[in-house]
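To whoever picks this up:

The parser on our side crashed when reading a file containing two proteins. I've narrowed it down to the boundary between the first structure block and the second sequence. Both blocks are reproduced below exactly, byte for byte. First block:
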Amino acid sequence: MAALGWLTSRRRSATARSVLAGEASAEAARKSSQEAGVPPSAQEVSEFPVHGDERAAAFFDLDNTVMQGAALFHFGRGLYKRKFFDTRDLAKFAWQQAWFRLAGVEDPEHMQDARDSALSIVKGHRVAELKSIGEEIYDEYMAERIWPGTRALAQAHLDAGQKVWLVTAAPVEIAQVIARRLGLTGALGTVAESVDGVYTGRLVGEPLHGPAKAEAVRALAAAEALDLSRCAAYSDSHNDIPMLSLVGHPYAINPDAKLRRHAREMDWRLRDYRTGRKAAKVGIPAAAGVGAVAGGTAAAIALHRRRR
């Protein structure tokens, strides 16, 4: 992995692993966007986003903000279809995703178990292989689950000549596929260690979640000479309050209950693109009718209950 010397070291409240994860993700995002050379358009738009403000950018959470459901779950479905793992592993994977969404909290041991499961699946596979499969999985499971409203918000920033980044706990390779397909600048995601193009089964730092997301945004902003007070961030989850609090224009998109309360207290802007009162009240994986995620979650819960 390239050296991280371009980053400015300083004291931070996040853990050392969060800082490392954020810095690694920021470096991977910058390298990918430079290689891709994605040029944003520069059409005149309304007061916000400010047209031509090169020191402003936008940061979008992925799961339930840009896309209905969890990217990692959809990716897991695609890998299962390609026989990367068996039915028992799929049930375990689905239950872990259900726990994160329904419990609303992250137990450290549970998070470690989920991380180890995901890493064991890709260990020994080539990075290029996963990228190629990610392209196929995007078309199969993700393309039709993009929220049009959030996509329009991202396009407004692009039309104003600003860079737009996804920020997600999903693997950075998958996040980059999604960002490129949407015409965004790039993506910050969880960085899995690889040697000679092969995954080792270890992470660089930790999953890009919670404080690590904020560290990734902070590192990228420093490298890109951005003024965070002029930047925007968008998320559905209270876990992203550290990231949202970094910028001058935070938005709560399809917010869970805790984020909704916090956003109202802080007078942040809210947008809800889900349908139905239940979806508007709680942070469920997606609105009613999205069968893949809801069905997988229900099946995982039922399986768990039968084993009790």
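<<boundary where parser fails>>
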Amino acid sequence: MDFTFTEEQQAAVEAAKAVFADVAPDGVPSPALTPGAVADDFDRPLWARLAGSDLLSLVLAEEHGGAGLDTVALCLVLREAAKVLARVPLLEHCATAMAVQAHGSPELAAALLPGAGRGTLVLTAAAHGRSGHDPAELAVTARRDEDGWTLDGTQTAVPWAHSADWIAVPAHTGEGEAVLALVPRTAEGLALAEQVSTTGERLAELALDGVRVAPTHLIDTPDAWERLRQLLATGTCALALGLGEGVLTMTSQYTSKREQFGFPVATFQAVAVQAADRYIDLRAMEVTLWQAAWRLDAATGGAGGPLPSSGDVAVAKIWASEGVRRGVQTAQHLHGGFGADTDYPLHRYHAWAKQLELQLGPAAAHEEALGDLLAAHPLA
């Protein structure tokens, strides 16, 4: 069994490290001190650098100007982005582009993917339903007629929607089928109400009232939405891993310099044991992440397993949610009062960790989903 990343995947990591090297986690006002959103838009200069380094087209096929890499490569880049709390819609943009590439019509792919790869078009996805707990596809209805489709309903907490050009909206047809519509932000009948995330970023509640969608802009391929949902969940796990690694590095550096009784606190057994526990969490988060990412890529090639790929994604999200929460809690404890200082970036990581812990469902929700899968697919 070989866990070595390919040369192309490793090259993507090096490119990402170069792009994110100068990103400051505290480049915007603190969410703890800001009553509304910390900024109206995402980091456009960083977005331009990602486009210039071909990282936005990483997962696109060569025919669309991309490198043709896979989910593992995307997760490697997301891991680096989270270490510096990069304020860009990298996950939602790339995951939506992958869904359009795999399941969309040739007309839709030609209209969106070249611009998405260059960064001139920004994509996002509505994945939280009405409340963040119910299935997202049940929050919007899609009615078909002679001219196309009509969408009605509400989606909440849509990331970067105010800045995106196109939004992927899951919906149901009333016949037990989930479809995925690509809707322009300026579509008639689409209204955005401002919401603010735990991280202080600007979200949107989408209200769709008779929004018309052309047949070529709606994906009715079976499992297209489920595939996108799994990509988003797996990418969230990659972000949680990168954030956890960044926090552990920050804590290691602090405890190596902070002295009590004439010795660095990192040499105290109680401190070392807590840090070691968090390191073990990170390694468990990592191995379950790569398993989930590999299964998503392998599933397109027909490779199977005892459970559907959603089982691997659920396991990864359980570890990500629990691990990132424990990581920032330990970091705050080992930093003492300094960790709560709003002039020090650790409190920002804590806010982002809480957002990632709950995003697309907390550990308990994925434990329930995993239990349902095990009941439906007994492991003989």
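After patching the parser it read the second block fine. The CA atoms of residues 60 and 132 lie 29 Å apart. The mean pLDDT is 94.
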